[in-house]
Amino acid sequence: MACMRLGSKPEVFQRDGETWVCTTGLPSDIVVQVADMFFHLHKFPMLSRSGVLEKMIGDLSGEEGPSCKLNLNDIPGGAKSFELVAKFCYGVKIELTAFNVVALRCAAEHLQMTENHGEGNLISQTEVFLIEVFGSWKDTITALKTCEDVLLQAEELHIVSRCINSLAVKACVDPTLFSWPMSDCASQSPNTRALWNGIVVTAKPKVVEEDWWYEDVSFLNLNLYKRVIEAVEARGMNSESIAGSLMFYGERYIPGLSRHSSFCESTTRVPPGTSISVLPESEQRSLLEEIVDLLPSKKCVTSTKFLLGLLRTAMILHASPSSRENLEKRIGVQLDEAALEDLLIPNLGYSVETLYDVDCVQRILHHFMSLDHAANVSSPCIVDDAQLVGSPSLTPMTLVAKLVDGYLAEIAPDVNLKFQKFQSLASMIPDYARQLDDGIYRAIDIYLKSHPWLTDSEREQLCRLMNCQKLSLEACTHAAQNERLPLRVVVQVLFFEQLRLRTSIAGWFFVSDNLENTQASHGTLGLRNTDPSGEVDCALGSREVSSIGMDDMKLRVQELEKECLSMRQEIEMLGKPKSTWNSLIRKLWFRGKHQPTNAKEPPLTMQPESPKDNSRLSFDSQSSKNENDPTGLWGPKCSDSPKG
Fold first, then answer.
1. CB contact set of 602 (below 8 Å; sequence gap of 6+)
2. Cis preceding-peptide flag for 181 (omega within 30 of 0)
3. Which of 367, 454, 576, 578 has a 20 to 30 A CA-CA distance from 238?
4. Helix 395-411 and helix 438-450, axial crossing angle in degrees, nearest 10
């Protein structure tokens, strides 16, 4: 830290309680009171350096002895600053540092300690030292922080603005070019050698990260910190660095921004011995609103997790509606980067109906869909079904579709969740956005399980949200045995699954037929190119096996055609009682399950990649059954209560 020494005389002041006495041998002829402190001094050393004291002492020239009293309660810096001023007037040794130079400069200005009252007076001395302070990042931070105690006088003397400009210049300079902060540590080249304990070592250059200035400016109060951010932004600092500093500052002073860590854990970068008190809720609310206004408007420079944390905390602190609306729009712009656990915002409204704030998520999704629709309108294009999945422009929509399906599955067990609200949120995702409808099927099944009082009409409306043709094999297997689904949906699932099986078998048969024709057309050439080592016999044997397999496949296709014809006839019997349909479904399912096949394939199981991945389904034929799910294939994998 920079330091400047003034004066040469030894200490001549002694403190006794709340009294400072000058021990020069001469009796004091003036008493200066500053707050609760009394300074017994002499007139001449004081009036020779200060215009204000000269005038005040002149007005009291008729008084003598202890009765000559001056009151300086309004001096900037209080008794500590006046103590240094008195020592300077007596020529006693003092040290100027970044901790006291601002208050001393303001006190000197207040007492009019100019060059007219002596060469090298206190104003000029403090100004020279301030220039030295501005050359160091650490000293400038310290000086700016001390401006909080004498803010009005420091503003008038432009000390605050000079500190902020100095910090902005250093923060915007590339640290790899000039090794900022230069005055805090001497830059070393890779070839510099340092001696320690007699051993020669090669000193390595210190790598400076882009966030090196976040922690230092976070110790400033909100007013000064805001001005620093505006200054670095005006000097062209990138939006990523500004957003990073704001996130660091917010997480330090607003404990609610971190859901999984306590306030102490969120401030692990605070130096040892430094304590930060938790702000009152009113100050946290003001700080949050200021951070929302200062955040860069550029997309994706602020993490979606932090924005959702701000929104959740804004609801807890009852921030202004404009701040919450601003956050919802920002989140909607980059909703595809959100995580499901961060989207589960507790409902803290005045009329708490549901556990989670579904209306807030619906508004965020509406902002996302509006932007996506505007983007499609501005650049219209014709895309066929084969290109939907692979189109890069549809990737954000696909991610949002998985996110919404997972969110629906989390809120579905809430018995207070209205049918219209669940349906409206699920219907906002277009059909083309879902590559598979397993996620929406899982959410619908959980909702049906938790709301058994739904009418048949409402059940059918929910099931229209999913496309039975886009269900995976595991989902179809579960849906075929799901008694909670409407009967018409189960029939559709069975029909499309049989149709899919027939199409795949027919395609395989077409490929096999072409392969046989190719082998037949090149059979003679194959026999000519073989040697007597047995390759001809192998080729003949493989063709015989292939012909046998094709014969079995032809029989299988004929059986499937008969089954499809039978299914069409049975579908026409929709007017029969429900008991007849239940027996029909069991019959169709039993028949499809026990069809003879040539290749035995193990049952497929699909497990989630990670416990937090709610976008994929979990089907397990070995899971235990419960009273609500007699099949035992679906219920155990769906939580009956929302995750908190």
1. none
2. yes
3. 367
4. 20
CA-closest candidate to residue 147, choices 171, 166, 119: 166
Q: How far apart are CA 484 and CA 357, in angstroms?
A: 27
Cα 202 to Cα 188, 189, 199, 209, 506: the distances in Å are 10, 9, 10, 22, 73
Considering the entire predicted model, what is its pTM?
0.71
The SS3 assignment for 184 reads coil
Token couple for 109: 């200005």
Terminus-to-terminus CA distance in the chain, angstroms?
50
* Number of CB atoms found within 10 A of residue 515's CB: 12
- Dihedral of the alpha carbons of 310, 311, 314, 319, in degrees to the nearest 10: 120
Number of Cβ within 10 Å of residue 642's Cβ equals 17
3-state secondary structure of 168: helix
Kindly calculate the radius of gyration of the chain based on its CA atoms and give it in whole angstroms.
Answer: 40
Token digits for 500? 């899919």
- Going from the C-alpha of 336 to that of each of 18, 108, 219, 369, 435, the distances in angstroms are 65, 58, 34, 11, 16
Residue 32 φ then ψ, to 5°: -110, 125
Mean pLDDT by 10 residues, the chain (644 residues): 86 85 82 90 89 87 65 92 93 93 96 91 95 94 95 95 95 68 44 51 57 92 95 93 94 79 40 60 93 91 93 92 94 93 84 85 94 66 42 74 94 92 92 88 92 90 86 83 84 78 64 57 47 44 49 67 67 53 53 46 39 41 38 40 38
Polymer length in residues for the chain: 644
